[in-house]
Design a protein that fits this description.
Blueprint lengths: L2 E5 L4 H12 L3 E6 L10 E5 L5 H10 L4 E4 L12 H21 L4 E7 L22 H14 L6 E7 L1 E3 L7 H9 L4 E4 L8 E3 H11 L6 E4 L8 H12 L5 E4 L1 H13 L7 H6 L9 H7 L7 H19 L17 H7 L1
Parallel strand pairs: 1-2, 1-4, 2-3, 4-5, 5-6, 6-10, 7-9, 8-11
């Protein structure tokens, strides 16, 4: 039985990956800041901070890992953001994990990175060799984490998988704001009309790629995402239809809307940061040619299919979801801030 360390194993995507691997016969060690609620005979759960070098060393000394799936990340969502904490939780934790892999000869390290390395539409599908340009601390921290990992790419098989927004049942965070509007039959507002196409990735498809990456045998960087990306208006309207909601989509003028989002972010009254208000009205999608060719990977769900799944989970479990506190950021609703006023007048 192979043993795999999954950092962020109590989080949304880490949990999806962990449960998939447990179901396929792996032994999984989940390492997370928050308590892991899952139970399984082949699951070991460790609550702790990856910046704690002594604890990381103890874990690597105790278990013989065949691979590490490094999914843990501190996001920059919320009304107030501690940028130093976001940086340290991402970059220093990544260095500690890589150092431990090197010391204990764990050759395979898979890192889930992000499309937040960019914050503007380049006018085409973005390939792996195009220079990143992050505009906020989370994107910068992820980019620095990639740089740190490449220092070890001669000794380890470091596979970096850059993913767009991960969607499946249980994915909340900022999406819970959209779902609440739809569940309460409120107007769903689109910045600039909603004709822009923004790529998602189905969590199970990403988990499949992370598993396949353990067998690659070399260091590599991949972009991943859904195929046949629909417009945001089409995706949101598909969710509204599936929900049987009375919500309607309406457009906000792009310039004034983005200016208002910038001001709200500056005043710490909105959860939408620089990345969100730059990307919310633009096209953005990855070129996935390389991962399809090298890992023989293919996506299975469209944006609208996966978002409908996520909404249905929210609607079914809404009462319980609204009581959640000590869970990862993607497993609970984001604070609305000033968006609560927008909902009230919708």
């Amino acid at each position: 039985m192979q043993t795999v360390l999954i950092t962020g194993g109590a989080g949304f995507f880490g949990g999806v990956l962990k449960r998939k691997m447990l179901g396929e016969g792996y032994r999984c060690v989940s390492f997370d800041l928050v308590q892991d609620a899952d139970r399984h005979e082949n699951l070991v759960s460790i609550q702790g901070d990856l910046r704690d070098k002594a604890l990381v060393e103890e874990v690597f000394s105790t278990y013989q890992f065949s691979a590490v799936q490094h999914c843990a990340a501190m996001l920059a969502h919320g009304l107030k953001i501690d940028e130093a904490e976001v940086w340290n939780c991402n970059v220093e934790a990544t260095r500690n994990v890589a150092e431990a892999c090197k010391r204990h000869q764990v050759r395979n390290l898979i890192f889930t990175s992000t499309n937040c390395l960019w914050a503007s539409n380049l006018g085409h599908a973005i390939a792996e060799d195009e220079p990143p340009a992050p505009v906020e601390v989370y994107g910068r921290a992820k980019l620095e984490s990639e740089r740190v990992l490449r220092e070890y790419s001669g000794e380890l098989n470091v596979v970096i998988i850059r993913c767009p927004t991960i969607i499946d049942s249980g994915r909340l965070g900022l999406l819970a704001i959209l779902f609440e509007f739809i569940d309460d039959n409120k107007t769903v507002w689109l910045v600039g009309g909603g004709s822009n196409r923004y790529q998602f990735i189905y969590a199970d498809d990403l988990a499949q790629a992370c598993e396949q990456a353990m067998e690659l045998g070399r260091s590599e960087t991949f972009h991943i995402g859904s195929d046949h990306v629909e417009s945001l208006r089409e995706v949101f309207e598909a969710v509204i239809r599936a929900a049987g909601s009375k919500s309607k989509t309406r457009a906000l003028p792009k310039g004034p809307a983005i200016l208002a989002m910038k001001l709200a972010h500056h005043l710490h009254i909105s959860p939408l940061g620089a990345y969100h208000y730059k990307m919310i009205a633009e096209d953005f999608f990855f070129d996935t040619t390389r991962i399809k060719r090298e890992l023989h990977w293919q996506p299975t769900l469209s944006n609208s299919q996966m978002l409908v799944r996520a909404y249905q989970y929210y609607s079914t479990h809404r009462a319980e979801i609204e009581k959640r506190s000590d869970v990862s950021a993607h497993s609970k609703p984001a604070s609305m801030g000033i968006i609560r006023l927008l909902k009230w007048i919708s």
